[in-house]
């Protein structure tokens, strides 16, 4: 062994077996990462060398177990990496197989460790999986060779005795090694593609080995007095591997199941033996979950007898008491797997005593001690089964039509019991318990509650309004008993049903009883020790049943008093504020007389510690929604003026905090002011269901533009411009400003937040390249152009020209590189796209407009999808023929003629292999529009396909010509997309042809 280098840096080169052995030993000893890496590199070099075969053979002779393991590993590596095609002759391949089997026999008989034997089995499996390998009766070959004590020629296997009797005489170590090989064999073959021409033969060979596998399993799974438990365990594991392999082969119709099925009774017998119970339960859990069709009716009946036994009841009873030991948990998973596999029988055959007992035990799994996800490890899985059970009942009910199945009533009753058990499990823990949970426990409990919501929603289809009425009665009882945690669980369940119930009289009757009770008064009480979660769920219930309050205004006062009281509590403020917004929006008309009280309440809110951004913006939005319902603009003015004054306080605070260098408060106040305005603007929009008088010829009101409301609108603009000017770098501020502007874009009538285009133009032009969310600013300009409906065309065109000039300036500052800021580039191109065709004359009259077209073409080469998608859409729009004035049409035609060849060149490069597959549909759009609208497109595309920089050498001129003619003939039809993908695959290579 040579060691060279300076300061400890060594190059290690083993020259003899002794050197190699020492190096392997050193590999498993503590050492520095650098030293270990050098040793690994040296050994890997030796493994890959031509002498690697001899090296592996020599290492297996070592007295050191780790060295022998490395020798077996080296055989695996040599077989996988160096045996390619016919690199080994048939004679050499036979010698290699014989040598591996000889080593296996020798080491097994010498009492070798499991580690080495398993690795040597891996080498034999690797041999089996080589394309040039011809080892067919591999299991029989090993059994007969073990029996003889040496390898026997493979061509004499047909002359030997039956495999079963020989296997029964093998020693424990020999039988164990055979099981390891047989199990590992199907696990590895199962990973290969059965439909591939290259690997299908492995699966054919496995089929020819099934008889031998069954023979060794038959003798090893038969439990006899004094039998070593390890043999039973390994035989069950091997059986499991073969059954799971059979699942795939059965799907492919490549394997008969009968031989393997004959072993199932032996496996069921193993369930009754304590020493083999764990591994056998895992087997049946796996089979029931993944391949229940493997089990016969007789097998399932045998399992049902075991699952309904006294021992099974004892285990479930222990689980109910909180005994979550591994054996109990594995049994529970076994029981649930059986339930999933036999759910139809469990639902239909309630009169069967065994199945009825199993259903009861499945229900008991929902009644275990402890909180779901935190202490109870099984209830979440049990709930999944009952959701499956419920879904089967629903499917059966619909399939039966008017004739309800006879078994349905008893099955429905089980669902009722499941809901009752789930109600107990979703009760929130006391604060001190919840505080001790880690994040996983909290997430698990939350997920379980969400699953219960899903169950309730499904069950409503099955149980109807009865489930709602029962829960409502339970809520009233909990309220009377002052059982606050019970009440929370019940309200949670009622919230889950909000989307399932309709406006049935019985539902409204129960809600009237609940909301007309002391619920809101109790939840507002500061005397009762009510958990915050209970109050929070009560608040959530208001948002869930908003439609009820729209029908029953008499409950609004108590409800709103409760919500405003809830604003005082930090834990409730956010949900209460959201509920206020929702309630005011839905019941705006009836709340108009209470507007003064709302304004007063908001002023009180401003004095509370909970008056934070979210709370204020939601509440002020709710009040603005009420103002929106006032018919006359003149009557809206006073309330809106008061709301704006509230916002001005935040602006004044913002300026004071800035002057005092209180950065955090400065930002919070500014953001709050604009978010409140944005919330007001959104709330003041006409409701989606508002009636629009399309035939009316009454002139539009000028109240907000030129009348008394103009000064208030100017004040809103001033607030927005002041805060934005101070904090252009704050993304929340910029986004809120844009949302304020967008509030009026969709409106069909003037209003406080329906600004003239100049306001949007000023915001856009004041934005710099380093302005936060510049992409959103550009999107806002785009939105204005597409939605501005009440401004003269000349005014909007003037705005479009200003936007275009601004966009060219941004492009210049970006150096014409879309990749320098992909989001801004994408939004900028979208803005340009929005100008076609209505504002093409603005483009025509703008200097340096070529910078825009160059930029969009460059975006087609960008690595980022956003600017590339935007550019593709821009050109797909631009190259079409529009009905515009002659001068504008000439401008558009000239642009297309100038940029068409380059556009085609870039599209062809992308489609020719440079684009990602996910981008092809996007790129196909401008291609289709070009072909349909531009007669010269064929010439441009032909030149692009024949250019020297075409990115692929895998398609020739003939394929290009055929493809071009195909897409020309399609004339922009949808099938062009498929043609584009096919051409891309041809250019990239067949390995990219995955299923779309």
Automatic annotation (TrEMBL):
It comes from the Eukaryota. Residues 39-106 form the Importin N-terminal domain. Transmembrane segments: none annotated. SMART domains: IBN_N. One of its GO terms (biological process) is protein import into nucleus. InterPro entries: ARM-like (IPR011989), ARM-type_fold (IPR016024), Importin-beta_N (IPR001494), Importin_beta-like_NTR (IPR051345), Importin_rep_3 (IPR040520), TPR_TNPO3_IPO13_3rd (IPR057942). Keywords: Nucleus, Protein transport, Transport. Signal peptide: none annotated. Pfam families: IBN_N, Importin_rep_3, TPR_TNPO3_IPO13_3rd. The keyword Transport applies. It is found in: Nucleus. GO terms for molecular function: small GTPase binding. GO terms for cellular component: cytoplasm; nucleus. Its main location: nucleus. Belongs to the importin beta family. This is Importin N-terminal domain-containing protein. It comes from Letharia columbiana.
């Amino acid at each position: 062994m040579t060691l060279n280098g300076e300061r400890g840096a060594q190059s290690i080169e083993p020259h003899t077996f002794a050197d190699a052995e020492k190096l392997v030993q050193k590999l498993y000893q503590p050492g520095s990462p650098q030293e270990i890496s050098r040793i690994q590199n040296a050994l890997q070099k030796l493994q890959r060398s031509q002498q690697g075969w001899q090296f592996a053979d020599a290492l297996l002779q070592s007295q050191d177990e780790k060295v022998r393991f490395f020798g077996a590993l080296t055989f695996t590596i040599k077989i996988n990496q160096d045996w390619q095609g016919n690199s080994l002759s048939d004679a050499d391949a036979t010698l290699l197989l014989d040598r591996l089997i000889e080593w296996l026999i020798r080491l097994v008989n010498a009492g070798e460790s499991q580690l080495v034997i398993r690795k040597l089995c891996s080498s034999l499996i690797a041999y089996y999986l080589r394309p040039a390998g011809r080892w067919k009766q591999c299991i029989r070959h090993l059994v007969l060779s073990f029996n003889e004590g040496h390898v026997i020629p493979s061509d004499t296997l047909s002359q030997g005795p039956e495999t079963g009797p020989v296997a029964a005489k093998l020693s424990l170590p020999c039988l164990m090694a055979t099981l390891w090989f047989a199990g590992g064999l199907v696990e590895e073959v199962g990973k290969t593609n059965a439909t591939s021409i290259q690997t299908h033969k492995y699966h054919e060979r496995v089929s020819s080995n099934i008889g031998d596998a069954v023979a060794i399993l038959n003798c090893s799974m038969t439990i006899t007095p004094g039998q070593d438990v390890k043999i039973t365990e390994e035989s069950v594991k091997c059986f499991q591997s073969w059954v799971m392999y059979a699942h795939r082969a059965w799907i492919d119709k490549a394997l008969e199941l009968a031989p393997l099925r004959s072993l199932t009774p032996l496996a069921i017998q193993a369930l009754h033996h304590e020493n083999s119970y764990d591994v056998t339960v895992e087997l049946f859990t796996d089979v029931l979950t993944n391949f229940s069709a493997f089990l016969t009716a007789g097998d399932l009946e045998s399992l049902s007898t075991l699952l309904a036994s006294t021992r099974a009841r004892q285990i479930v009873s222990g689980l109910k008491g909180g005994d979550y030991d591994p054996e109990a948990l594995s049994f529970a998973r076994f029981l649930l797997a059986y339930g999933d596999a036999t759910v139809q029988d469990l639902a239909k055959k309630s009169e069967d005593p065994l199945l009825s007992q199993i259903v009861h035990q499945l229900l008991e799994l929902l009644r275990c001690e402890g909180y779901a996800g935190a202490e109870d490890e099984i209830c979440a899985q049990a709930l999944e089964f009952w959701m499956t059970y419920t879904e089967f009942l629903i499917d059966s009910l619909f399939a039966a039509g008017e004739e309800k199945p006879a078994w349905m009533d008893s099955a429905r009753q089980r669902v009722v019991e499941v809901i009752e058990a789930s109600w107990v499990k979703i009760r929130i823990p006391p604060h001190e318990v919840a505080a001790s949970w880690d994040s996983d426990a909290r997430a698990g409990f939350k997920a379980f509650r969400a699953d219960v919501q899903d169950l309730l929603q499904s069950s409503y289809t099955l149980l109807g309004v009865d489930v709602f009425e029962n829960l409502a009665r339970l809520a009233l009882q909990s309220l009377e008993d002052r059982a606050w945690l019970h009440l929370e669980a019940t309200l949670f369940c009622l919230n889950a049903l909000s989307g399932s119930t309709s406006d049935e009289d019985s539902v409204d009757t129960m809600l009237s009883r609940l909301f007309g009770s002391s619920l809101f008064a109790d939840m507002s009480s500061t005397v009762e020790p009510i958990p915050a979660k209970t109050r929070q769920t009560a608040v959530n219930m208001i948002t869930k049943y908003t439609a009820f309050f729209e029908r029953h205004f008499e409950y609004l006062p108590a409800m709103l008093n409760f919500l405003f009281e809830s604003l005082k509590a930090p834990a409730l403020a956010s949900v209460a504020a959201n509920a206020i917004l929702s309630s005011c929006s839905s019941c705006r008309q009836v709340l108009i007389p209470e507007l003064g009280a709302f304004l007063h309440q908001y002023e009180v809110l401003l004095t509370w510690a909970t008056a934070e951004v979210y709370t204020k913006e939601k509440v002020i939005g709710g009040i603005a929604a009420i103002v929106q319902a006032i018919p006359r603009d003149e009557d809206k003015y006073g309330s809106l003026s008061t709301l704006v004054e509230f916002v001005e306080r935040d602006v004044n605070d913002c300026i004071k905090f800035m002057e005092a260098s209180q950065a955090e408060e400065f930002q919070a106040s500014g953001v709050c002011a604009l978010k409140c305005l944005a919330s007001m603007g959104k709330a003041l929009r006409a409701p989606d269901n508002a009636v629009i008088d399309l035939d009316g010829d009454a002139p539009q009101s000028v109240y907000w533009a030129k009348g008394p409301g103009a000064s208030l609108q100017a004040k809103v603009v001033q607030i927005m411009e002041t805060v934005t000017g101070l904090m252009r770098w704050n993304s929340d501020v910029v986004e809120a400003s844009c949302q304020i502007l967008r509030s009026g874009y969709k409106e069909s009538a003037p209003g406080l937040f329906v600004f003239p285009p100049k306001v949007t133009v000023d915001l856009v032009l004041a934005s710099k390249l380093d302005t936060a969310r510049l992409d959103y600013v550009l999107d806002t300009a785009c939105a204005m152009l597409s939605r501005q409906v009440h401004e003269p065309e000349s005014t909007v065109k003037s705005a479009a020209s200003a936007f275009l000039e601004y966009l060219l300036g941004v492009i210049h500052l970006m150096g014409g590189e879309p990749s320098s800021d992909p989001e801004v580039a994408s939004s900028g191109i979208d803005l340009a796209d929005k100008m076609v065709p209505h504002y093409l004359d603005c483009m025509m009259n703008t200097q340096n407009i070529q910078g825009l077209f160059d930029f969009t073409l460059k975006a087609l080469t960008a690595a980022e999808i956003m600017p590339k998608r935007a550019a593709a859409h821009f050109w797909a729009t631009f190259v079409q023929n529009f009905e515009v004035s002659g001068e504008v049409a000439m401008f558009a035609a000239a642009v297309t003629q100038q940029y068409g060849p380059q556009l085609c060149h870039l599209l062809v490069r992308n489609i020719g292999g440079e684009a990602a597959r996910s981008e092809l549909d996007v790129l196909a759009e401008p291609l289709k529009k070009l072909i349909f609208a531009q007669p010269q497109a064929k010439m441009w595309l032909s030149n692009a396909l024949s250019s020297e920089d075409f990115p692929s050498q895998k398609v020739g001129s003939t394929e290009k010509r055929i493809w071009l003619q195909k897409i020309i003939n399609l004339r922009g039809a949808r099938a062009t997309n498929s043609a584009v993908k096919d051409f891309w695959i041809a250019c990239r290579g067949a390995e990219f042809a995955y299923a779309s």
